[in-house]
Amino acid sequence: MTYQCTTCGQTHDELPDMAFRWPNQYFAVPEGERAARVKGNTDVCAIDGKAFLVRGVILVPIVGTSGHFGIGVWVSQSPVNFKTYLDNYNSTQIGPFFGWLCNSIPFYTPDTWAMKTMVHFQGSNKRPVIELEPADHPLYRDYSQGVTLDRAWSIAHARYPATEAAG
Question: Which of 41, 69, 65 minimizes the C-alpha distance to 159?
């Protein structure tokens, strides 16, 4: 969808999704200790063998379209559910599993940290879809009611400078 952005004034071909490379807990580990204490990649993360997280996407509907704005986030998992996911990575026959949102999304107040979620596994090498549990929070409102395309672009520009969001 081509769109004239009211934030930067440029024409864009597609709305970029945004994502967090790591969960908040990753940054609590001193940089020099991360190689020894953090095991992970772009899909899963284990910290000290005590915190287990999966990366998925919150799909925020764009009002008036069939499209959505994706926010890639990390969600905690119990040790049993984490292992089940690792053992059945490409299966749709597991879950959904409860988890806590483990990223503070900077353009939402109050903090999004520890919002309740359900993780829905999609298989086929796709990241899980993160369903937000009902809450009195602006993120949940956006997730459940959708956002305008202007709002989605303002979020994208908050995360990426205009020159990056355009590409």
Answer: 69
Q: Are 97 and 76 contacting, i.e. CB atoms less than 8 angstroms apart?
A: no
Cα 119 to chain centroid, rounded: 11
Cα 158 to Cα 7: distance, rounded to the nearest angstrom? 10
For Cα atoms 146, 147, 151, give the angle at the middle one, nearest 5 degrees. Answer: 165
Predicted TM-score (pTM) of this structure: 0.87
β-pair partners for 40: 45
Tell me how far CA of residue 108 lies from CA of 7, 78, 89, 111, in angstroms. 18, 26, 31, 6
Question: Closest Cα partner for 42 from 57, 62, 29?
Answer: 57
- Residue 139 and residue 160: Cα distance in Å, rounded? 19
Read off the pLDDT of residues 91-147 as tens digits, 9 standing for 90 and up.
999 999 999 999 999 889 999 999 999 999 998 889 999 999 999 999 999 999 999
